[in-house]
Each structure stands twice: as C-alpha cells, then as structure tokens.
Design brief:
Strand order of the largest sheet: 1-2
Number of strands: 4
Strand content: under 5%
Structural class: mainly alpha
Helix content: over 70%
Length: 534
Amino acid sequence: LLATTIFLSGYFFYGKFLEKIFRLNPNEEVPSKTNYDGIDFVPTNKFVLLGHYFSSIAGAGPIVGPIIAGVAFGWLGAILWIILGTIFIGGMHDFASLVISVRNQGKSVAEIVNKYVNRRTYKLFLIFIWLALIYVIAVFADLAGETFVKEPSVAQVSILYILVAIIFGGLVYKFKFKLSLTTIFMLAIVVVGIYFNLKYQFLFFEKNVWITILLGYCFFASILPVWLLLQPRDYMSSFMLYFAVVVGLIGTIFGNNSIVYPAVKSFNTPSVGPLIPFMFITIACGAVSGFHSLVSSGTTSKQLDNIKNAKFIGYGGMILEGIVAMIALSTVMILSKDSGLVSKPPVEIFSHGIAKFVSLIGLNSEVGKVLGYLIISAFILTTLDSATRIARYIFQEFVELKDNTNLSRIFSTVASLVLPIILLNTKVYDANGVVVPCWKIVWPLFGATNQLLAALVLIVIYIWISKQNSSKYKLAIIVPTIFMLVMTFWALFYIIIKNVISNGFNIIAIIGSVLFILAVMLVVETIKTLSQKS
C-alpha cells in the first residue's frame, strides 16, 4: 500500500513537473495525424494505446529481474530501487523519449543525435539500438518457445489472443464498432477460450517448431497495419496484465502472508555478482529500461492522438510496470530462505506466488500456476512483436528507406530476423561444456545492454533539454544519466572480465566488448561535439 501510494504520488506530482519541463501544449500537432498512413501512423484512443504500451514494455524483465535480485540480495534494496528508479529515472526516461519522438515526426530518439550531435554518432546509435533489439527478439523467442513446450495450454491461449486481436481490429477500425462493447465481447471469448484450453491440450510441438511459429508471427506483426494485429493484440493482452496487477495487489494485501525472506541477505553472490552494480542491472525493466524508449519512440509516438496524453501513456505505463515489479518481488518476500522454491527458476517462483494469490478468488493452485505462466507469456509475446516492428523501423532509418511500401517493410523485417534465427539455431555451451538454451547465455549481456541503452537515451534527453530549456531543469536529467552510465559500464566490464577469466574470450565476451567499445565511442563523441558547440 505504501509503495502504491508513493507510485501514484510520483505520477501526479513528479509527472506534473515533467510536463512543465517539456511544456506540453494540447494544441500541438502530432505525427499520428499529420503523417497518417493507416499502417504505422494511426491516432489512437489513450486507453487502447496505454494497453499497447504497457503490454509492449512489460516483458519478462519486471518479473524475472526483481525475483533474481530479491533472492540473491534480499528484498529491501530491491524495493528501494524499484520505487526510486521508477519515479525519478524510468518514468522520466519513458515520458521524455515519447515527447521528443512526437516532436520529431515520430522518429526514433537517435534522430535527436543526428540533429544535435552529428551524423556519425547518429549512425552508431542506430547500430547499438538495432543490435539491442536483436538480443531482445532472440531471448524472448527462446523463452516463449520453452514455455509453450512446458505448458501447451499457454500456447493455445496465445494463438487465441492473436485470432481475437485480428477480429477486434477489424470490428473497431473498419466497421466502427463501439470500443467498450467490442472489448467486453472479445474478453468474454478469451475467458471461455482460457477455460477450454486449460481442460483440453492438443498442441504438442518441439521447441524449434514453436520458435519458427513465433518468428513467423513476428514477421506478420511487423509488416501488417498496426491497427490490425499489433495494437489490438497488445490491447487485449493488457487485460491479462491488469488481471495480474489486481490479483497481485489483492494477494499481497489480503492474503495473510507474512514477510519471512531476509530484507538483506548478501552483498555479493557467485550467481549474480556484487550488489553494486548488479542490483540495478538485474532488476532492469522493473525500474528503468532502455527498451522502453524504443517502444515509446518506435510505435507509441506514431499513435499518440494528443501530446497531453504523454504522461498518461509514458509515465503511467512505467508506474504500472513498477507495480508489477513489486508484485513479483512479493512472491519472494513470502518465502522462507530455506524454501526449495528459492533455488527454482524465477518463472516458477512467480507462478507459485500467483497460485497462492488467486486462491483468494476461489481458483485452485494448479490453475493459478498455469495462469502465472500465461501472464508471463503475455508479457513476453507483446515485447517480442513490438521489438520486431521497432527493429524494422530502425533498419529502415539506418539504410534510409524513405518509402514505406510493402517491399520495404518485408525486406527490413527479414533483415532484422536473420541474426535472431542464426542465434537461435546455434548451439551454445556453459562453462561445463553442456548445451544450454540461447537465453541463458545471452541474458546477462541483454540486461547490461538494455540498461546501457537507457543511459545513452538519457544522454539524448539531456541534449534535447539543453537545447530547449533553461539550465535550472538539467539536474533532473544529468544526475540519473551519470548514475546509469557508471552502473552500466561497471556491470558490462565486470561481465566481460568474468567471462574471459572463466571461459576465455567466448561469445559473451566478444559481443560485450563490441557493445562496450561502441557505447564508449557514443559517449565520447557526444561529449566532444557538445563541447565544441558550446
């Protein structure tokens, strides 16, 4: 209750302060209207857009990250970082990147670098963003494939969501059905579908087959009009995520569960590393995430119908994600440190916690566990399809494909899926020479890269503020920027050195080194250019 109260206070008060910094005017023109094309640029109801945005940004990160950090270090530091990070860094990062993109015709945040720094740095930034998205696609496709193999009912419901989304998009946008009534009708179909799919399981495919199906889905989600598949699927999925938030809040407040896990457990663990900097990296999307800026400036800015809704979408979406992170952390807090679940994967800990929470509304634990997997799957898929579409945007921007024809969209999407396909079909090994899933190898690098991207985006935001407003507002941007730069460079360097010492110059060390060097070049180039211009 205290955390939720602080989150809401941050939304109303610090969000209002940010609106003042960015001088929002409800009469501003927005690209969803000025650049309307019926494909990517589509003015959208703010509640529908919040559903798309929240679903897209809320991947497995705000669930997996806080659980890993809570188990490793204890819950106290995790709670403090989730609350403070969400309000003062994550919310600001998401809101600012959305506003800046809207004021630059829906272009990515990299376009600000092109405008205020130089073209070379802009191109480097695009490469960094595109590579980060490639890791997102590979990691989440691999995670989703594993989940579908383990729980076929989750796969079946996910396919149902896609079919319902296409029908929903057609009814609302083509036939002009009323949004509220269509939503209720489609949700009723989903609820009935969940019931039958929990009882009857019939899709038993191998992991590679599921990954192929998932990447095929990503392809179509990237090239089809945003109103037909991506936006309505994310909107419909958002109700599953809202359900998770409501059930989680009910479970934590009324579930009669005591906090038994240690508030402070360790300052250094072999599996994760030292608390500083890795708590800030591990929790990731639960407090701040660079991927969010790619969603806000990639798809959301092209659908925002009024710039005054930027706080509701950008800052509000991050607040919702902070609440999800708190609920995920609560599933650790109710465990004893000797519980066998502590050593289990984060997804299993979360599903067990959700099972306990849903028992309060009359559902048995087995159904609760499946719902837990279904919630995580909904988070993963909405991130997966948005990441593919944004990667297509970035590729088009990098190679300067000015047109948005079918051929251009198909070519850019295929180009963005080639590396994930290669990664997902390459055998990777752990330190003992055992073949492991792709995501287990890429995840540490993904976390550090994601947070480093957030730090780089904060630099872009600082550049924009420096050019637009008086210096009295710069402190709100520069302090989080410096903090994130220090923590992310520190963590990425640690990962590289640890892998070189343990396993030699393996794939993680090579990719990490490339990203580290690229990020250093971006920071140095930006500082140098700004110094010359000043």
